[in-house]
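Meet my pick.
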Amino acid sequence: MKLKIKFLCCITSLLVLCTVPVYAQNARNIMQKVLDRNDGTTEVSRQKLSTCRFVKKNKRLVCAESPRVKVFDSVRKDFGPNQKDTKSITIIRKPVSEKGIGFLQYDYEELGRESDQWMYLAAMRKIKRIVSGNDDEPKSGSFFGSEISYEDLEARHLEDYQYRILKSVTYRKRPCWIIESLPTLKRANKSNYSKSIQWVDKERDLVLKTLLFDRQGKPVKQIVIGQVENVKGIWVARKIHVTNVQTKRRTTMSLESVMFNLEVPDTFLTQRSLTSDTFREKHLSRLSKSLK
């Protein structure tokens, strides 16, 4: 009996050793497709950000207070030899008291190079560069006071994580892979998250749901795509719900209008568009006309 048990253990170990690398490689390939999904070379959009403290009522999450609402215009353009570098700018339009506050971000394909981020405080006429405390700390702070952190906005490098397929499921009538992503040791030092679990649409290469865990391994956020639409061959999320289970706050980002592959001048995606009202409005008004 002992010999039989030992034999079965050896077979099981062999199967695990033979299966895991292939499975892991498949998971990596799936996430590569997610990153390579067609999203156009440029994007111009108008979005609404709504944030509130929530409570559960009749098994649903509802705002326990009047939500803070912001409307902003956003412009993105791909750069670089492989069109894998990205520059984007976001400008608040409403409320009037916050009009002109802006956010500029540069993402890079180069492994190990972090995203550059700047916040422009219109009332103070001051640009603030967003950085971590030191080389071994993640960034803190949130995007326009929402439950979306600066880290959530950064481009993801495939090599910074190890991937594993947990199972194949049907989620909201869509065939999905559930994939676990664990940061490498180097990435873990710069991240607020110890793990993420993602529901990836098998046919559209779109992440429909994400669970994020803090550095202590406790659930911290749930990100859910509320509505998906095809706009001229590009799958876009019309609503994104970001629920922070620790702060009991929820942010919903609604895509009110969007256009892809418009001509966007390189000079617009610079700090000049943050600080110069005349320069910014000249270009932004032209681009925004396509959204009406």
Remarks:
- DSSP finds five helices and 14 strands in the chain.
